[in-house]
Amino acid sequence: SQTIHQWPATLVQPVGSPLSLECTVEGTSNPNLYWYRQAAGRGLQLLFYSVGIGQISSEVPQNLSASRPQDRQFILSSKKLLLSDSGFYLCAWSRGGAGNTIYFGEGSWLTVV
Amino acid sequence: KQEVTQIPAALSVPEGENLVLNCSFTDSAIYNLQWFRQDPGKGLTSLLLIQSSQREQTSGRLNASLDKSSGRSTLYIAASQPGDSATYLCAAYPGGATNKLIFGTGTLLAVQP
Asked: What number of C-beta contacts closer than 8 Å exist between A and B?
């Protein structure tokens, strides 16, 4: 069966510090990978998606970047965090192609202070 | 631009009651629609996926329907239990090469024992 792991679960970082959130998927190959952010009262916002190694698409301009160094590894990064980067970050995967069920990780709570 | 709305934002029912959660979308040209459950502070769990060619999907006490012409989907929960308490989100997939879902802001369900 497939599983998705995301860490760290919670993170408190000062403004201007770097960020690295990591996500890995097991039990499948060549998945589509996603990073979403969930802010209070605003629903889920797609930040990045990837259909393969090194193939990253950004949905919104922001202070964040994503990388996919391996087939089943997806990393969300920032060089300098802003207060507005605080939120709940969710990694997700789906089988390759379109219209497939999306499976989410447990999420990472980021508080920028 | 596709917009997804969920009304009501919150709902409280006594245990054992049957209930319906509503999801509306503005563009009927969707590929599929997914329903998710989110427990407080956790990631999303996929409940049901309805393809555009389908009218409904069932899983246990859950039944989801889709009416593309009216831009509506409903999630029916039979014989509700306190363990059903969570936020329920619907997401429309408009089509394309990747699963770029458009999420509603969710309905917070509380089932009172």
From this structure: 65
Q: Note whether B65 and B74 are within 8 A (CB).
A: yes
Question: What pLDDT score does B97 carry?
Answer: 66
* Amino acid at the residue B60: G
Tell which wins on pLDDT, A95 or A61. Answer: A95
Q: Which of A36-40, A91-95, B2-6 bottoms out in mean pLDDT, i.e. has the lowest?
A: A36-40
Mark yes or no for CB contact B31/A105 under 8 Å: no
Q: Tell me which chain B residues have a C-beta less than 8 angstroms from the C-beta of A90.
A: 43-44
CB within 8 Å: A6 and B43: yes
Residue A6 has which token pair? Answer: 């995301």
Please list the residues that pair with B48 across neighbouring strands: B35
**Are A17 and A111 spatial neighbours (Cβ–Cβ below 8 Å)?**
no
* CA distance linking residue B52 with residue B47, whole number of Å: 16
- Separation between Cα atoms, residue A78 and residue B1, nearest integer Å: 29
Chain B residues close to A47, C-beta within 8 Å: none
| Cα distance between residue B100 and residue A48, in whole Å | 10
Q: How far is CA A81 from CA A12, A40, A63, B21, B103, in A?
A: 11, 19, 7, 38, 26
A30 phi-psi bin (left φ>0, alpha ψ -120 to 50, beta other):
left
Q: Is B19 left (phi over 0), alpha (psi -120 to 50) or beta?
A: beta
